[in-house]
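Lecture 7, part B: from sequences to assemblies.

Below are the input chains for today's worked example.
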Amino acid sequence: MNVKIIGCSGGTTSQYGACASVLVRAQGFSLLLDCGGGTSLKLDEFNIGDNLDAVMISHFHFDHYSDAGILMHKRLIDWKNHPQPLMLYGLDDAHLYELRWLPFSNVTAISAKEKLRIGPFEIDCFATTHPIDALGFAIHYDGLTMVYGGDGALSDALIQSAQGCDLLICECSLYADVDGSKPGHMNAYDFARLCELAKPQKAIATHLPIYGDHQRLLKQIRAKTTTDVALAIQGMEIEISCNY
Ligand SMILES: [Zn+2]
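Predicted structure of the full complex, as structure tokens:
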């Protein structure tokens, strides 16, 4: 299972690139998790373009899905090469149905606690703690599990879903001195605590603040956990395998 960070900038595009977006690939199947602002442009820069089979949207905040419309246009323009609808999955919400544009795209409503099969992946959805309904995804393939937390404050559902996973990609929107629990985000200490409680093999902090010094953020996380933690960088690729 190959995982590529397409965007990692929290809340808006910035000097760190596009907003939330992670590409997961296996057996030639490409599943995009979130498609915030700047995603489409980055997919072009990374020579991925329209080579997407499905898109899962964690929640309908623009920094997680605003490029979905652009991906639909991309499929229209590239229809000759990809004459199948781009499949979009998200919560049962009016915003989801705006993304149905047959034959170029189609949508499927999903919910927390749902188990899905999309391409070669088995996916468990879970609810995250955020001001609007939001999901995280545990993606299973070939005995491996990658967990994407979307947006949300530290919660039991997130800890449980990430338990012992091979790779955790989760938001770390705030430095340690800012309380994220009210806006439904995690700060550096929350992220470290998640790592300590869930014990992933490796963790990547994404949805990073657009201000300050990211090395300070990483230091704050590492001060509170022994987990192997890295900061997301756009274009970063991780190959998850059994001996990883
Ligand atoms: Zn959000």
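Note for the exam: The chain has seven helices and 14 strands. Keep this in mind when comparing with the next example.
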